[in-house]
Amino acid sequence: MARKDNAADAANPGRLKQIALTYKMTRRADKKIGLVLAAVGIVTFGVFLAIGFLIGHPIYLGILGLLLAFLATAIVFGRRAERAAFGQMEGQPGAAAAVLDNIGRGWTTTPAVAMNRNQDVVHRAVGKAGIVLVAEGNPNRVKSLLAAEKRKMNRIVADVPVHDLIVGTGEGQVELKKLRTTMMKLPRVLTGPQVTATNDRLRALGDLMSNMPLPKGPMPKGMKLPKGGQRPR
Fold it and tell me: What is the pLDDT of residue 85?
């Protein structure tokens, strides 16, 4: 029991520190975060307390309002922190890979399956919606990368649907902050065993990551690729 208590005590400061760091990061991009959180908490608590007085149970509704105010504040804080993080990542090479890496269960992601010398890159995600190719970079240049990858997919897994998305803010593109939502809305057409089989077949292709070490998340702007192709041989 003592060990468990010590572990819990050690974990709590770490969580509090992480929350504080997240708040500071969010506040740099969202100056009104403090006022918004305070307003959400006060309004939620006030509404339930007022209802409690109206029905004659201010203590019970006040306690419930306090708990719900904390929950509402946490939800709003999480969403605005996520929005701030996306805002800081927007436009950075490799930002889409960072989003895909945290897309959740049911998806297997492979960053940088194709790339050119201009750092236009294509990432691959496999799930029950099929194969999703996510490109980031110059919209005109990434189209050729996407076309080449789709042809490759058709040769290896012709029976699996292939979707392609270009991350950006232009017409026909998907904003970084909406990438996860867009992928989750794709129709699910594969079963679990079919997803596993698809991943097994795609592993035979290899990818750029297996041949050249790349850092996770946004890629350094000074990184250069070998001349003469999309990937090293």
Answer: 66
With tokens 């040769």, the residue in question is 155
Nearest-angstrom CA–CA distance, 79 and 75:
6
- Cβ–Cβ under 8 Å, residues 141 and 114: no
User: What totals of helices (H) and strands (E) does the chain contain, helices first?
Assistant: 8, 4
* Residue 207 one-letter amino acid: D
Under DSSP, is residue 84 helix (H, G, I), strand (E, B) or coil? helix
Q: What is the pLDDT of residue 132?
A: 93
Report residues of the chain scoring pLDDT below 70.
1-13, 29, 84-94, 205-233
Residue type for 203, please? R
AA letter at 104: G
Q: What CA–CA distance (Å, rounded) separates 27 from 189?
A: 41
Question: 199 in the Ramachandran plot: left (φ > 0), alpha (ψ -120 to 50) or beta?
Answer: alpha
Give the list of residues 6+ apart from residue 183 with CB closer than 8 angstroms, or none.
Answer: 103, 107, 125, 127, 129, 132, 165
pLDDT, tens digit (0-9, with 9 covering 90-100), for 125-176: 999 999 999 998 888 888 888 999 999 888 888 889 999 999 888 888 888 8
For residue 124, list its beta bridge partners.
110, 133
Which regions of 140-188 does DSSP assign to beta strands (E)?
A: 162-167
